[in-house]
Amino acid sequence: MSEEAVYHHLIPQTYMKPWCFSGKTILVYDKQNGCWDERNIENICGINYYHSIRANSLYVTPEALEKIFGFLSIYNISCNGIKLDTLEAMHHNYQYYDEWEIRYPKGALVPKKQRNVFKTQIQQAKFNDIEEQWSRRFENGWEKLIREIESVLLAIKNRLPFKLTRHAFSELVRYYVMFEWRGFGGNLEYSNAFNQIDEMLAFSSVEIPKEERTLSFYTNVLEEMKHNLLVKYFDLFQDGKGMMQTYKQILEDNCTAVFLIASQGSNFLSSDNPCFRFKNEKDEIVPFLLHYLN
Q1: What does the alpha-carbon distance between residue 241 and residue 233 come to, in Å, rounded to a whole number?
Q2: What is the C-alpha to C-alpha distance for residues 124 and 102, in angstroms, rounded to an integer?
Q3: What global pTM score does this model have?
Q4: Is 127 helix (H, G, I), strand (E, B) or coil?
Q5: Sign of CA dihedral 190, 193, 199, 202
């Protein structure tokens, strides 16, 4: 995926691809309207710049700061008498950009026209490392993993010896976590935690003016906080760190893989939430991942 990518998939294309009946065309059912439609998987189940880090983002990395503000390092910048001599300081004070005093290295004041050029450059900069890492490290890996699982299922079906390697199981759990947290429904505990915070502090009632929204889908403070923390966790997880990694390890240490195969000829649909959980007859929570196997 290139840096110019705008539309970030919450349901990865690699997951939707096996459901396609022609090229990248998939059959979509609208539950609200009760109708079917043909759609290209490149253009559904995503949100513009969903995993991007931008100026004013609550979560930012040193690499993102360099991408967004690095070009300003050669200038002498201050805001209300306070020097902004680090990229982090520029980021935290970007909301006051119109009050910045920007000077060339030799001391001359940068004219307003050039200041506006700088501002446009900052606004257009988007750090897409999370989405790029997904494409580079995990997109094709899912197809390889599914082929291995298909061989196991075929052996089970034909009553032949089979073995699901520990590595394959670990990777299956990893993708489950990524699909769950990345999807529209998201992780249940994560959502419940923010619901409890909102009950106490009512952040969802604090609206963000359109002109101040880092991303267009932030309508209130709760959404901005929840999403930025999610971006942080996803960034850490792709490097094997953080809360999502802990969650993944808990599942891996306490779950067993059970494969349920739909009978031939049965109608089988996925959804915009490929991962979900339910309670079994023992009142145990069971993680569940739907997928179409060719």
Answers
A1: 8
A2: 19
A3: 0.86
A4: strand
A5: negative
Measure CA 51 to chain center. 5
Per DSSP, what are the bridge partners of residue 22?
A: 25
Q: Which residues pair with 199 in a beta bridge?
A: none
* Count of other CB atoms within 10 angstroms of residue 15: 27
User: Residue 80: which region, alpha, beta or left (left: phi > 0; alpha: psi -120 to 50)?
Assistant: left
Q: Which helix (H) or strand (E) holds 188?
A: helix 188-201
Contacts of 216 (CB under 8 A, 6+ apart): 48, 210
**Angle between helix 242-254 and 166-182 (nearest 10):** 130
H or E stretch covering 180: helix 166-182
From the CB of residue 16, how many other CB atoms can be counted at a distance below 10 Å? 21
Q: How confident is the model at residue 262 (pLDDT cuts 50, 70, 90)?
A: confident
The arithmetic mean of pLDDT across residues 122-137, rounded, is 88
